[in-house]
Amino acid sequence: MANVLHMNGSLEETSYAMNSLLQRKGILRTLPITKKTVAELMCNSRFPEGRLAMADLGCASGPNTLLLVSEMIKVVHKLYGELGQDCPELQIFLNDLPGNDFNHVFTSIQGFKENMKKEMGAQAFIAGVPGSFYDRLFPTHSLHFIHSSYSLQWRSQVPQGLEENKGNIYLASSSPPCVLEAYYRQFQVDISSFLKFRAQELVTGGRMVLTLPGRRGEGSSEKECCYIWELMSIALKQMTSEGLIDQQKLDSFNLPMYMPSAMEVEVEVQKQGSFAIEHLELWDMNWDAYEGEVMSLPAGDGGYQLSKCMEAVFGPVIAHHFDSSREIIDEVFRRYGLLLSDWMAKESPTLVSLTVSLTKRH
After folding, report:
1. Which domains does the chain have, with CATH numbers?
2. pTM exceeds 0.85, yes or no
3. What letter would DSSP give residue 361?
4. pLDDT in tens, 72-114
5. Whole-Å CA distances, 167 to 41, 163, 230, 232, 362
């Protein structure tokens, strides 16, 4: 997956930069937790080297990346100002897989740094770190704070043992129990690696704030939370029946992701043993990213906008697996948008998210 997975780059109509309002709302929703965690880190830790190192794992590209960086800088600068102390040098690492559009991120950094220095005199050193966060990324005890938003749902690989999930592309109402078990096993392997490597990279007392899509309960009864992926499989099956997509390709396609419950996350954190959970919560966000926004959209456009958001995220994975042309991908998401619009017109579906704040014990 490290060689395949990436968000759509550039500033085109289907790019992640132009279609990540939903993720932005998630970052803003959890910002109080992030600020509180950073403030506690500042109050409970000493930085004799005069350096504070932070990392955003799965940063993607576009405005959301530097939004988070900006807020972290503001928190640190404000706290040190209130203490009458000089702000430490801020070292900020932006991590994502190698296919991420780092060029777009880098072209924005210089102007961003100049604005930060002009607004508050803050000096920040920002660098990109390509690689999978299921491997080591940083030197031992080199980081003080780690953040990740809507990235940890991705698995390091498609789980083994999904042969009986034909016709589905993720967990669905018709998926047998063995499929759920396969996804859960892969989640366990990946989250264990993630926690182990972050424990090596963080200083003692270092903090993490992680947000990812989740689900409310345990077991197969929660498959209904994944209905949005069933709609995508319907669009793909329509095109298969018309000969636009190969049937064998569809039968072998499963999304490399898993949305855990709060209990599943808590169990894995306790099992790994390096972190204490300071805060854990589930919360809802409407799948319609434009809900509550000042701008108004024509009736039914919520599904179209959500389809574009999904294409920005999942388009590269689908294009790679099906070896599809631009025209086929456009048609997949056109049909998907129609299905989403119908669904959203009848219901007000929500994305269940999970946010956890952790402290490294030792």
Report:
1. 21-360 (3.40.50.150)
2. yes
3. -
4. 888 888 887 887 777 788 899 999 888 878 888 888 888 888 8
5. 48, 10, 9, 11, 46
